[in-house]
Amino acid sequence: MFFAYFIISFAEYLGHTYWPSVLLWIEENEVERWKFSYFASWGIYIGVIVFANLGFAFIYWLNHPFFEQYKILKTEKWPWKENTIEWKQLLIKSIALVGVNALVIFPCMLYLLQVVSGFNTTQTFAIEDLPSKITILWQYIFASYVDDIGFTLSHRLLHIPFFYKHVHKVHHSYTQAVSISATYAHPVEYALGNMLPAGIPTLLMGKRQHFFTFCVITIVRVIGTSTGHSGYDFPWVFWDVLPMRGTAKYHDYHHSGGDFSGNYSGASTIIDTVWGTNKKYYREYKKEMMDKKND
């Protein structure tokens, strides 16, 4: 909880300290706000996705006991240790597809958002509207849960045999999730299953959301998705303190074949719980906890 408070406080500090200078630059250079929003969002996304994947690549390379104690599938080797040749082939394909999604699909979908909004920024830029800690918190929670409703529904749809075979099978090339697999998805899935759900909360909040808050949520979301596919279940992940939260272990169970026909949710477990598609996971999780307690 303290770490979460620190992150939110730091975000509030950055916004109130540096946003006035950013806004002054926009006005002095007569930059249209929709253009600033478009290119800033795109740049932040690329920067964070590169940072997150390089960060996890370093952790994988370290292979340090401190991190490895949190490895989810402890009885299985990492894919690069299991079969080096196959891993290199998959890695090359992954970098290429992640690049296509980030450099082509992302800006296209972002531009579509601008078209829908009539090339008017959906968020406010005003200094007096800069978010407080409470605002950052409630808007992150709202965006996270609304986003996950769209994600879960689209994910369930992608497991219909036809869509799985032609679209979703790409993402499931990874039977053991690692960070780069987070956005290793067919462009159709990436656009409709990842980006579209993420854009809905922004449209719903409209001018109630500051562009700076949108950037903070984007950064946390990208890091969260990478962490959720990292293959580690770290105890310090601050967003996991939220109720009915889908942890890395929860999603990894779906990837690893623990229950291929369940655990569809990402950020939260709400819809899975309503559908009853996570019962097998919780039965096995309860058994695992009991076994540890008895040991």
From TrEMBL:
The chain crosses the membrane at residues 42-62, 90-113. It is found in: Membrane. The keyword Phosphoprotein does not apply. Residues 142-277 form the Fatty acid hydroxylase domain. Keywords: Membrane, Transmembrane, Transmembrane helix. Coiled coil: none annotated. InterPro entries: Fatty_acid_hydroxylase, Sterol_Desaturase_Related. GO terms for cellular component: membrane. This is Fatty acid hydroxylase domain-containing protein. Pfam families: FA_hydroxylase (PF04116). GO terms for molecular function: iron ion binding; oxidoreductase activity. One of its GO terms (biological process) is lipid biosynthetic process. The keyword Lyase does not apply.
